[in-house]
Write a structure and sequence with these properties.
Order of helices and strands: HEHEEEEEEEEHE
Strand content: 25-35%
Number of helices: 3
CATH superfamily of the largest domain: chitin-binding protein cbp21
Number of strands: 10
Strand order of the largest sheet: 2-8-7-4-5
Largest sheet: 5 strands, mixed
Helix content: 10-25%
Distance between the termini: 127 Å
Number of domains: 2
Oligomer: single chain
Structural class: mainly beta
CATH class of the largest domain: Mainly Beta
Shape: rod-shaped
CATH architecture of the largest domain: Distorted Sandwich
Length: about 250
């Protein structure tokens, strides 16, 4: 009876041991690289549990050993990928931040999503099943306010609410550089079609038609400085070639 009581008490004291496990796997987080945690277990334990096996680095990923080979992520829309181990894709909000690696209190939110761990698997998972994938979209700013583009920490934070009012907190961090954007600036579109140019002045007088002008014509178009010359032209060409909007009697 005493042994059974001890087991029961332990289960109540450490519910995270038998509950949700998961987090961000892409970009690859510190927990899987510099910290060497197991992707099937310790990688995805709640932050208050990880403190026990990070060699003094604490439970939150911002205290983990930084990655020196920072992955480059283009500015603009970006998809973060996650996984829930052991069917534990619990409900709860997720947020993603860019953080100053030298000042963890300086951060900028770049995305949020309710129940993000159910984005690709809407229903609750079952214990003992293979890892359940999930993803969420964020927007990477080209010029973040919290950190320098060539040295940022991307922090994924998930608050699992399946034991509400108790909350289980999970986070993962990846050291990143921000690139110039997925496809660069778009090529400029075609310019507007040119408008009509000014009406040309009268060219050289066309050859006189076989039947010569009979006189008595005048220029009847819009007033212009060379109206007298155009009247002469009308008399030389009408009626054989006599534009009605230009010459008349």
């Amino acid at each position: 009876m005493k042994f059974a009581a001890i087991i029961a008490t332990s289960a109540l004291a450490f519910p995270a041991l038998v509950s949700a496990h998961g987090g961000m796997v892409e970009p690859k987080p510190r927990s899987l690289t510099t910290m060497g945690l197991n992707i099937d277990s310790t990688f995805g334990h709640p932050t208050n549990m990880r403190n026990a096996y990070t060699n003094g680095k604490g439970g939150e990923c911002l205290g983990f050993t930084p990655q020196t080979d920072r992955v480059t992520i283009p500015a603009g829309p970006f998809t973060i990928k996650m996984r829930a181990n052991d069917g534990a894709n619990h409900i709860g909000p997720c947020k993603v931040y860019l953080v100053d690696p030298s000042n963890a209190g300086n951060k900028q939110e770049i995305g949020s999503m309710d129940n993000c761990m159910r984005s690709l698997h809407p229903g609750a998972g079952s214990k003992g099943t293979p890892p359940i994938p999930a993803e969420m979209k964020v927007n990477i700013p080209a010029n973040p306010t919290a950190c320098k583009p060539d040295n940022c920490v991307l922090q994924f934070r998930w608050e699992a609410m399946h034991l509400a009012p108790s909350i289980e907190v999970y986070d993962q961090c990846a050291d990143i550089k921000i690139g110039g954007g997925g496809g660069g600036a778009p090529a400029p579109g075609p310019g507007p079609a040119p408008g009509p140019g000014p009406a040309p002045g009268p060219g050289p007088a066309p050859p006189a038609p076989p039947a010569g002008g009979s006189g008595g014509y005048r220029y009847v178009g819009p007033a212009r400085p060379d109206s007298a010359a155009l009247t002469t032209w009308c008399n030389q060409n009408c009626p054989g070639f006599c534009p009605g909007d230009m010459c008349g009697k």
